[in-house]
Specification:
Length: about 325
């Protein structure tokens, strides 16, 4: 009977201890509601760094920060607040505080750098979870935060404005076609899904002067650029590194003189907003400038090779006087003979 009481007592003690242990575990495991994750920038350029900060809201003696990122967009650089491992697009930062070594921490910082070879707007994010959380003396543990914190970030290159150029060689003569190239270029052009080129004559030598600007599309059809512009109605793609698009066209101008062609590159997805524009001044034919007569150098007067037949000049007067003298001389000579 005594043995039975002893066994029952032991079992009762085990049950009591188990209940107390279970109650203690559940009581000491709480949510860390004060935890949050932030980034110091939401838009960066290629080659630029961004800091991701996991803040706990209180000092912790142990934690693990798990960060998933796009390894095609970012490189891991460094971390502060633990030992880090970086493998296949995931950084795991672990920290354990022990008495006399280090200090409890209220945050952890992980630094990433955007890759240099990004030539278009690239939206991405960091996905962060927090595990293994406890207070400095390990008397209180906190539930793992397995629902990820998502921090969006945009990697945006420093774009170079688009430039328009119109190239041709030689003199443009009236009513003769001239081969030309209209060039759209940029060292790093912003990406557009739907753009078009439009052209307009804003100056001509006269109201009767006419201009033709013609090109051939991919279907071998002739396109009147002044009437229709260039590109499908919905537009075409443009953008990237070292952009250089060359549109071969033929120009014809009816009169000699000065013309101005206004060219615009427009964004069809943004109410035809102007991306780039330029005026091209074109001279047709050979133009001459009248010489200012007042600036002509003076020359010495030359005597004519023969005397003029009529006119009241000094030479006529001399001739008359000489004739009279000769006649008088002859009359006097005859009288005294």
């Amino acid at each position: 009977m005594k043995k039975l009481y002893f066994v029952i007592g032991i079992l009762f003690l085990i049950i009591i201890l188990s209940m107390q242990f279970t109650t203690t575990i559940f009581a000491e495991t709480t949510k860390l509601d004060s935890a949050e994750v932030s980034v110091n920038k939401t838009k960066i350029a290629p080659g630029e760094e961004v800091n991701l900060v996991a803040s706990f809201g209180k000092a912790l003696g142990a934690y693990t920060v798990n960060v998933e990122y796009d390894k095609d967009v970012f490189d891991y650089v460094r971390s502060e607040g633990g030992e880090a491992s970086n493998q296949n697009g995931k950084v795991i930062l672990t920290y354990y505080y022990s008495q006399g070594q280090g200090n409890p921490r209220s945050n952890a910082i992980i630094t990433f750098k955007a890759k240099n070879n990004i030539y278009a707007d690239t939206p991405t994010d960091f996905s962060v979870t927090l595990t293994g959380l406890s207070n400095p003396d390990n008397s209180e543990e906190y539930e793992d935060i397995e629902e990820p914190f998502k921090k969006d970030i945009l990697v945006q290159p420093k774009y170079v404005d688009y430039n328009l150029k119109l190239e041709y060689t030689g003199v443009i003569l009236p009513n003769l076609e001239k081969n030309m190239n209209l060039i759209t270029e940029s060292a790093l052009g912003k990406n557009y899904e739907h753009v078009r080129l439009t052209m307009e004559v804003t100056k001509a030598p006269s109201k009767n002067a006419t201009v033709k600007l013609l090109a051939i599309d991919d279907d071998d059809a002739q396109v009147d650029l002044l009437h229709s512009g260039w590109g499908e109605e919905g537009g075409y793609k443009l953008g990237g590194k070292d952009v250089k698009q060359v549109l071969a066209l033929r120009g014809e101008f009816s009169e000699i003189g000065d013309y101005t062609i206004h060219v615009k590159l427009i964004d069809r997805d943004n109410e035809d907003k102007t991306i780039a524009e330029k005026n091209f001044n074109i001279k047709v034919g050979q133009t001459t400038t009248e010489t200012n007569k007042d600036n002509k150098p003076e020359t010495e007067k030359e005597k004519p090779a023969t005397l003029p037949k009529a006119g009241g000049t000094e030479y006529t007067a001399i001739t008359i006087v000489a004739t009279i003298l000769a006649s008088a001389y002859l009359l006097l000579t005859k009288k005294f003979k």
